[in-house]
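ingest -> validate -> predict -> emit
validate: passed (alphabet ok, no gaps, 196 aa)
predict: started
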Amino acid sequence: MADTALLVIDVQNIYELPDSPLCVPGFKQSLGRINRLVEGFEAAGEPVIYVRHVHRADGRDAGRMFDFSGAAEPVGFVDGSAEAEYVPGLRIVPDGLHMTKHRYSCFEGTELEAILRSLGVKTVAICGYMTNFCCETTARAAHDKDYFVNFIADATGAPDLGEEYRQSAIIQAVCATLGAGFARILTTEEYLQAMR
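emit:
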């Protein structure tokens, strides 16, 4: 797994809070797998890059994030708010890199690509939240920028989209598409075994 960076995407309180509309079912289990990946990368001496989604309270940096359908919604992920902070249980490595973003893709409007190039990274491993938004969008963008992409499916999560479309179906659909032309799809255990 040389020349690989782990992207830990949006492991923020908004996805764990029970009263949040974005609460992820089984959050503690997916967080445990994310932490195992972080520990594996730390032990291997490979870079870990933490990304948080944040916005200004006035929404000037939000673009179409909260009015994509034409109707404005309240701005979320406000910088400095409790919902936008890292989940307390997230494993933070001392030499991890930290960055923020304002769009679904970790590449859009950020220094991520410059960081990856400076580190000599050729492959990104993706984990975090949400499977079908920031994780999937980042995987597609990384592929388009000619990185190899490893999508660690069970170390991602997403809120259910209504009664008929649950998290498991969302992850399955995302993986079917990404696996057909964008990324290698692996479980946490498969990935950690390959690192040993």
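The beta strands are 4-9, 48-53, 97-101, 123-129, 148-157, 184-186.
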